[in-house]
């Protein structure tokens, strides 16, 4: 357990839900670890000697960890890793999920973008709300799967400083980008305004 005199930090637990073609969902709980500058499976935190407490939300789901990572932190907010800004839940689809299931996800969660992953949960593309509108959002005739309607994604590695990430997004004219591990697995998405708010000092996570 963490020593009481260590600096204790609160780190949010993120949830990535991946919809499979049969409608079931794979669930991955992660915590961005400042000590390792990468996200860790929640099970790794549970076994970590630096963990002080794991807190649940009102529904009993893991919400955050309190731990003593033993790092000094970053003085300049622009140098903070993108992964540290990710919080909450993201829903993604596997690339063989049918189009009607993607449209249902957009409606259920009021999304503007859905990330598409392969069987190893690595990001392979995105489907934007505008793409579906363009295809005829109300059409019940759609038969294609995510693989056939997605577009390439600008993915941001989780350890990338927020300043660099925002520059990459601006250069690519992207306002909403998947955030991935070194292995290419999805951990969340970054919206440019969330990053800009962070730089302004609001401290809000995405
Ligand atoms: S509990 Fe351990 S592995 Fe998890 S974020 Fe804290 S220092 Fe990192």
Helix count, DSSP H or I runs of 4 or more residues: 6
Q: If you average the pLDDT, what whole number results?
A: 89
What is Rg?
18 Å
The fraction of residues assigned to DSSP E strands is 25-35%
Query: What letter string, H or E per element, gives the SSE order?
Result: EEEHEEEHEEHHEHEEH
Q: Give the distinct bound molecules.
A: iron/sulfur cluster
Q: What would you call the structural class?
A: alpha/beta
Low-pLDDT segments: none
What is the number of beta strands?
11
Q: Characterize the biggest β-sheet.
A: 8 strands, mixed
**What sort of overall outline do the alpha carbons produce when their principal axes are compared?**
globular
Distance between the termini: 29 Å
- Percent helix range: 10-25%
Word description of this protein:
With 206 residues, this protein is of the alpha/beta class. 23% of the residues lie in helices and 32% in strands. It has six helices and eleven strands. The strands form two sheets. Strands 1, 2, 3, 4, 5, 6, 7 and 8 form an eight-stranded mixed beta sheet that branches. A three-stranded mixed beta sheet has the order 9-10-11. Helix 5 (162-172) packs antiparallel against helix 6. The longest helix is centred in the middle third of the chain and has 11 residues, at 99-109. It is globular and about 55 Å long. 29% of the residues are buried. The model has no long low-confidence stretch (mean pLDDT 89). The structure holds iron/sulfur cluster (SF4).
């Amino acid at each position: 357990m963490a020593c009481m005199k260590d600096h204790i930090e609160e780190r949010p637990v993120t949830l990535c839900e991946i919809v499979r073609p049969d409608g079931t969902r794979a669930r991955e709980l992660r915590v961005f670890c400042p000590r390792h500058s990468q996200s860790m499976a929640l099970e790794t935190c549970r076994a970590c000697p630096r963990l002080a407490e794991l807190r649940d939300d009102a529904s009993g789901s893991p919400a955050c960890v309190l731990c003593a990572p033993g790092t000094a932190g970053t003085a300049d907010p622009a140098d903070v890793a993108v992964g540290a800004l990710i919080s909450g839940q993201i829903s993604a689809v596997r690339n063989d999920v049918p189009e009607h299931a993607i449209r249902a996800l957009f409606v259920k969660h009021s999304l503007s973008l859905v990330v598409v992953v392969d069987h190893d949960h690595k990001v392979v593309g995105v489907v934007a709300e505008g793409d579906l509108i363009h295809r005829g959002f109300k059409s019940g005739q759609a038969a294609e799967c995510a693989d056939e309607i997605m577009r390439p994604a600008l993915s941001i590695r989780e350890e990338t400083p927020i300043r660099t990430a925002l520059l990459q997004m601006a250069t690519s004219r992207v306002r909403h980008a998947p955030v991935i591990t070194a292995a290419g697995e999805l951990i969340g998405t970054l919206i440019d305004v969330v990053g800009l708010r962070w730089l302004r000092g609001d401290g809000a996570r995405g």
